[in-house]
Specification:
The structure is a single chain. The chain has helices at residues 62-73, 83-97, 110-124, 129-150, 163-170, 230-233, 253-256, 298-303, 477-484, and strands at residues 7-9, 18-20, 173-180, 185-188, 191-195, 199-205, 215-225, 240-249, 258-262, 266-270, 275-280, 286-294, 332-339, 344-353, 364-370, 379-380, 386-390, 395-399, 401-409, 415-424, 426-427, 441-447, 451-460, 465-476. By secondary structure, the chain is α+β, with helices and mostly antiparallel strands. Strand 3 and strand 4 form a beta hairpin.
Length: 488
């Protein structure tokens, strides 16, 4: 039977939820983003920029900021005679932020020299070039700053350890767009964020939700500002880039979705990819929307897509090994977080997980992190699991429901399987067969295309606490073969 060893717990302090106001009313700009280097152990160091193209330390003046905003927030100028004027304005804005790459010395006066350079640049470039060039440069400056923050990697999770700081530096936020059956869009921007070790949980609540019966789709976007220093200033207006992360169908929500829990006021329905819709029991209308996003490749998914197309992750190239006969079956590391948005119930790391060839069954590898037979590895939960929620008026906590964050690393420490999803605890009908634990048994099951997770917990009435007595991961052989180039 497959076994795992090296279970390790660390104290993980849950940070309070942070209210983040997005930028209502801002126009969205659908420009393709420049290449973004993925974060992680194998990240490529960004190229050094020469002083001639670096952003000036002082940034741009308030007048330039106002000019940029007016250019974005007013309708485009149609007549061809004014295209040159608009391009000239963007060239001046670009020059005020970045040193020009070349200088023309033919003219005597400084003023005439500037005009001459502008005319040469305008004739050499197509309309809209300097606008795009300015935006791309500003994005590159912000992303270069972010890349410096995401370089340090947490040895337990294999993920960047300064995700919160990086998100703040880039001005990254998330919005949801609800579309009704006649095509009208309803944008929900203000959200509460709760940062954990390996994920961020986002909750949107409002008193002005559209009726559920008229809605057809819900889209989740990552949003990043395009104006210089907009992320630092916390501006609520300005052009932004949307990156589609996920899209959900809302038709027949209660019939087609899984109900993961309920309390006196709301029912929670899980769609997929970590999204939960809370519905009022009385009206059967939306009370809040919640999602949990795993940090693995979150920046890429939140910034490199477009308003209509999700970012396509680059294909993994397997590192072949013809020496190890059990290549891809051993030395996995698991980092597991169990939390309820505001509280953390378990934060543990399990190393040296493996599976023997004989234990491969039904196209799955079995990795046991906590075994029923080894009571020295059984783990207590801190507190009673529940998923907390809130609206403008009410607050609540759905019991026997929590968010599970799984980060599984391969033998060289690269993220192999990562997800963050709400799950529920189901009361089992079987009695505990363990001598040390005489109480009700609860189970949690999770499954996606890459694997499955099974958790077995026992409730001890005497101490009023839950113990994890069984924790098993099942990895799809297809996923393993694609990753390692094997044939199990």
């Amino acid at each position: 039977m497959a076994t795992g060893c090296g279970g390790h717990l660390r104290q993980c302090g849950a940070e309070p939820a942070v209210g983040v106001a997005a930028f209502p009313g801002a126009s969205e700009v659908g420009l393709p983003s420049p290449p973004f280097t993925p974060a992680g152990p194998s990240a490529v160091r960004p190229r050094n920029r020469s002083k001639s193209s670096a952003a000036r330390p002082q940034g741009v003046s308030r007048a330039v900021h106002a000019g940029i905003k007016s250019l974005y927030l007013t309708p485009s100028i149609k007549p061809e005679s004014n295209l040159g004027i608009e391009s000239g304005i963007w060239l001046k804005i670009y020059s005020s932020c970045f040193q020009p790459k070349k200088t023309i010395w033919k003219m005597k006066s400084e003023q005439t020299e500037t005009v001459s350079l502008g005319c040469a640049a305008l004739h050499d470039r197509e309309p809209g070039y300097w606008k795009k060039e300015y935006i791309f440069k500003q994005i590159a400056v912000v992303k270069s700053r972010v890349m410096q923050l995401v370089k340090p990697v947490d040895p337990y999770t294999g993920l960047p350890c300064k995700n919160k700081e990086a998100m703040k530096a880039s001005g990254l936020s998330w919005i949801i767009v609800l579309k009704d059956k006649i095509g009208k869009e309803h944008v929900m921007e203000e959200a509460n964020l709760s940062f954990k070790d390996t994920s961020v949980t986002i909750l949107w609540h409002s008193t002005d939700w559209p009726c559920l019966d008229i809605l057809s789709t819900l889209k989740l976007f990552g949003v990043i500002p395009l104006l210089p220093d907009q992320s630092r200033a916390g501006s609520k207006n300005g052009p932004r880039h949307r990156s589609l992360i996920a899209e959900y169908r809302l038709a027949n929500l209660t019939e087609k979705s899984v109900e993961v829990g309920a309390d006196k006021l709301v029912r929670l329905f899980y769609l997929n990819s970590g999204l939960v819709v809370g519905l009022w029991k009385v009206k059967n209308e939306i009370a809040f929307v919640m999602t949990s996003l795993h940090y693995h490749q979150l920046f890429e998914r939140s910034t490199l897509g477009s308003a209509t197309v999700k970012y396509a992750l680059p294909p993994h190239k397997p590192l072949l090994d013809d020496v190890d006969p059990e290549y891809g079956l051993h030395d996995y590391s698991l980092h597991l977080d169990m939390h309820g948005r505001s509280c953390t119930y378990l934060c543990g790391t399990f190393k040296s997980l493996f599976c023997r060839k004989d234990d491969i069954a039904d196209e799955y590898l079995k990795l046991t992190a906590v075994s029923l037979k080894d009571n020295t590895k059984h783990l207590p939960l801190i507190g009673t699991p529940g998923l907390s929620w809130e609206t403008n008026v009410f607050k609540g906590n759905v019991k026997d429901c929590y968010v599970m964050d799984v980060t599984l690393l391969d033998e060289i420490g690269k993220p192999f399987w990562c997800f963050s999803a709400p799950v529920c605890m189901d009361l089992s009908s079987k009695a505990s067969g363990l001598y040390d634990y005489m109480g009700h048994i609860y189970t949690t099951d999770y499954a996606d295309s890459e694997g499955k997770v099974y958790v077995e917990l026992v409730w001890l009435e005497e101490t009023k606490e839950y113990f994890i007595v069984n924790l098993v991961l099942y990895l799809s052989t297809k996923k393993v073969n694609d990753w390692f180039g094997t044939n199990y």
